[in-house]
Amino acid sequence: NSSAASDVYKRQQLMNVNDIIATLTENEQKVIMMYAAGYSTNEIAGIFDTVPSTVRSRIMWIRRRVQAGNS
Q1: What's the predicted TM-score (pTM) here?
Q2: What is the pLDDT of residue 51?
Q3: Which of 6, 16, 44, 62 has its CA 20 to 30 A from that of 55?
């Protein structure tokens, strides 16, 4: 059944993402969770007392790690 195979694949992908997130620092985890929850990079930067470009760089780096882990 292709639906069951698709469900298995999705679960494997999610497990990979969770494994990658577990390797991030606590602050990196907070940044990516806040971004996923809809916070803007400006809002996240304000919370972490940094500049938005640093937040964008962190998000880009995290995305690359997730994509590399799922390829």
Answers
A1: 0.70
A2: 97
A3: 16
